[in-house]
Amino acid sequence: PGLTSELLLIVPTNRKVRSLSKEFIKNSPDEGLTSINIATLSTLFRSLLIHSGAAFSIPSESAVSVLLEQVFHEIANDKESRPLKYFGNYNGKMAKGNLEKIRAAISEYKRHGVTPDHLRKEFEDISTIEAHKANDLAAIYDLLNRKFNQLKLKDIGDIYSELLAASTSLHPLFRDLYPEIRIIIIQGFSELTLPEIKLIDSLASIPKMELILELDDNLFNPNIFEDGAIALAHFDNRGFKRIRANRLEDNSLKSFIK
After folding, report:
1. Does residue 249 surpass a pLDDT of 50?
2. Strand, coil or helix: 87
3. d(CA 192, CA 172)
4. How far is the C-alpha of 235 from the C-alpha of 65, rounded, in Å?
5. CB distance 138 to 116 below 8 Å
6. Alpha helices in the chain (DSSP H)
7. Distance of CA 32 to CAs 16, 20, 27, Å?
8. What's the pLDDT tens digit per position in 108-135?
9. Cβ 234 vs Cβ 199: under 8 Å
């Protein structure tokens, strides 16, 4: 019980949270363990931002689709704004499937810390189809952000950005929410975004905190961790001690807990 109350396990998906919770409770002596601290990165950082007093909601996919329809309509009817070029044939209307793709693209931009200005600068003074597409997406992204701010909505990428902007307050927020946690284990990730890496770095710098980050560096899954070298280099440079596992079972959370 002492170890589990001091441990926070972070895994990639809510499905993994549920399955591991059941597994730990089932395998505990006499099934005496009733709960364990398990979260995803998104639920952890969302909880921290809520605990800071920030008022916001996570929008549903359907709600964002409605907002995107409004964005296209407003851009198409705004005579003063730059007309869309790549999406110029849609005349204020967009098929649901295309809206979902645009929504997914903007969500990923946010998760990776890419802003509308980043998109514009990447294709500055370039006139290609990809440049027109990037500039159109930047305009759509900008207006969607304004609507999010007006309605107090946030994507996970928005949550990352807000926490990083106030990184000095992350330590007291975490300690207030998890006063007993002394060990954080992050396991099962095949990719991490730059904002996620920075936030993990901040968690690792909490006084009296031990953070164990288990990353697949192409030893067992050579094709899925394409950005592994970037993540590993960052943590190496920040003073993390690298421990290599020669066998898959040596690299498991179970072997650590047992």
Report:
1. no
2. coil
3. 24
4. 38
5. yes
6. 2-6, 14-27, 41-51, 61-77, 96-111, 116-122, 129-151, 156-165, 170-177, 194-204, 228-237, 253-257
7. 21, 15, 9
8. 999 999 999 999 988 877 778 888 899 9
9. no
